[in-house]
Every structure is written in structure tokens, then in C-alpha cells.
Fold:
Amino acid sequence: MADLPTGFWSGWIIVLTCVSLATLFWIILSVYFAPNASEHPEAEPVWDNDLREGSNAPPLWWFWMLLAALVFSLVYLMLYPGLGSYKGLLNWSQGSRIVESYANFEESFQGARAEVANADLSDIQNDLGLMQTAERIFKRECSACHGPDGRGQASLFPNLMDIDWQWGSSAEQIELTIRGGRVANMLAWQSILGDENVNQVADYVTKFGEADGHPGQAIYQQNCVACHGLDGVGNPLLGAPNLTDNIWLYGGDLESVTQTIAAGRSGVMPSFANRLDDAQIKLLVAMLAR
Ligand code: HEC
Ligand code: HEC
Structure:
């Protein structure tokens, strides 16, 4: 009722409600306190010469019941919203109830959450219940991309259960990844190097370490070292992956690697700082940083 469009309708409802209640009150009074027929025989209708209508008032307990109902209505309308846009003395509303229960929820759980947020990772990892909570959060927030068991998906979303960490494997780095998100930037080399060179460096990259003197080696050393390193182990500060292990985000066959180098890649891990609270992020870090 509190959001009726205009004051007119609100006023109309107030008038209608008050008039109805007043009428009801008047009817009740008139039934019980009407002039008694036995005291005013002349007012009593008589049918067929001797058929008297009589005028026994209904039982008195009806009167008290109706009066109690009336009083209840009046008190109710004073306390709760009901009269147009009048909010009632208690200021009660469904919305405020939700706010209230949310505040209660916060109050009863914030202690436990602060405890989790400040706990040691190893304590969390040793607590089966907390780890199950972490898995539930992961399933809800992360599995759409990283797969239900976090083992990656579609050669687009990295496997989080392997030992290869593009952005760093420490708890601090993993937390930074989850909070702030990550944007990887690997250029498209086709226009810079041309097809032939891309093919050669791709072939070299798939044979990293066992192809000294490979024609792709010089191209690699000229163009790729800044990010992936001379020895190809990558650089977590840039999110440049290790090219010497056998773990590939975008596929390790020659065709996929060629495609990656030619067209570039720009994986985006979204930021969760505004979606998850400190305790939830801590739980995820504990789950992933093992
Ligand atoms: C500016 C830094 C930078 C340079 C220079 C660079 N890369 Fe990358 N490279 C990256 C980043 C960052 C990624 C990760 C992209 C992603 O996650 O979306 C990447 C990814 C890759 C991948 C995919 C690895 C996988 O696991 O699927 C290959 C292959 C690769 N780079 C090869 C090269 C080659 C060859 C060169 C030189 C021609 C090169 N890169 C130059 C930053 C760089
Ligand atoms: C919209 C898809 C998406 C969602 C949802 C998502 N991620 Fe990611 N995540 C990515 C992508 C893509 C990358 C790879 C970024 C890159 O190429 O560098 C990534 C990378 C990561 C990395 C870095 C991996 C490494 O090797 O360093 C971590 C850690 C991670 N995600 C954790 C999570 C967690 C935890 C959640 C849930 C809270 C989550 N992600 C939700 C897409 C997603």
C-alpha cells in the first residue's frame, strides 16, 4: 500500500475504510440498542391481526465479539499499513522485514566468516567441512569456466588442478588472480613475422629444448624471450606460460600452437572481488594452493 501512485487513491481508501468501519459500528449499535418493542408496543408490526413480529435482540456475546473485532481492526490499522499510504505506528513492511533478517544473518555469521578469513591456510585445508564448503563455492562460481572438478575446459579455461601456474602458484598470487582477475596478452604474430616464420617458431616451440639449431630458434630468441624467457619457462608476472612443460592451455599439437602464435591469445579471468567475500576467497585459495 505504501507505494500507491497518487495521494488521491490513498485518501480514497482511507475514507472508504473509515466509513465502512463507522457504518459497521452504527449497525451493531442499532441492533442492540434499538428501542425495545416490548417497551414501545405501538412500534411493533402486527401481521394477520395477531401475528407479532417480536424483537428479541441476538445474544449479547455476539455483541462483545463484534465489538472486539472492531477494536482489533482499529488497533491493527493504527499499527500496521492498511489505511492508504499511511505506514502505521510500527513502520512495518515486507521490505524492512527482509532488511532485518539480512542484518540478523550478518550478525550471526560474521564472526564465523571473519574467523575463516583470518585462519591459516593449513588449518582450513585440514578441515573437511570447510573444504567441502570451498568445493561448493567453486562449483557455483568457477566450474562454468574451469569445469566441475577444476580440470579446465575446451582448451580455453586453464586446468587449476595441475602443477602449472600461468600467474603464479603461491597463495598470494592465486588470491590476487581471484580478487582482481587477470587479462593475458599474447600478440598475434602472423602480421609481424609472416606465415613462414610463424610455422617455424611454432615447430620450434613444440620441440623446445631438443631442437638446437632449429630455424625457429632464432625467431624465438628475437621475439619471444622477453615474455617466455630464454629457457621458455615463462613469466608469472605477465601470465606468460611455461612452453617447455607438456601442459598447454590452448592445445599442444602443432596446429593449435601455430594457431595460438599466428592469431594471438587473450584469456580473461574475471575479477571476483565484488562477488565473493574475504572468507569465500580464502576458502578457494585454500582449495587451489596445494
Ligand atoms: C608480450 C609478452 C609475450 C610475447 C612477446 C610472446 N608471448 Fe606468448 N604468451 C604470452 C601470454 C601472456 C600468453 C598467455 C595467453 C593467454 O593465457 O591467453 C602467451 C601464450 C603463448 C602460447 C600458448 C601456451 C599454451 O599453454 O597454450 C604460446 C604457444 C606462445 N605464447 C608462444 C609464443 C611465441 C612463439 C612467441 C614469440 C613469437 C610469443 N609467445 C611471444 C605473452 C607473450
Ligand atoms: C568466465 C570464465 C571464468 C570464470 C567464471 C572463472 N575463471 Fe578463472 N580463469 C578464466 C580464464 C580464461 C583464465 C585464464 C586467463 C589467462 O589466459 O591467463 C583463468 C585463470 C584462472 C587462474 C590462474 C591459473 C594459472 O594458471 O595461473 C585461477 C587461479 C583461476 N582462474 C581461478 C578461478 C576461480 C577460483 C574462479 C571462481 C571463483 C574462477 N577462476 C572463475 C576464466 C574464468
Remarks:
- Residues 141-142, 144-146, 157-158, 160, 165-167, 174, 177-178, 182, 184, 239, 267-270, 272, 284, 288 surround heme C (ligand 2) (CB under 6 Å).
- The chain has a mean pLDDT of 86.
- The two ends are 55 Å apart (CA to CA).
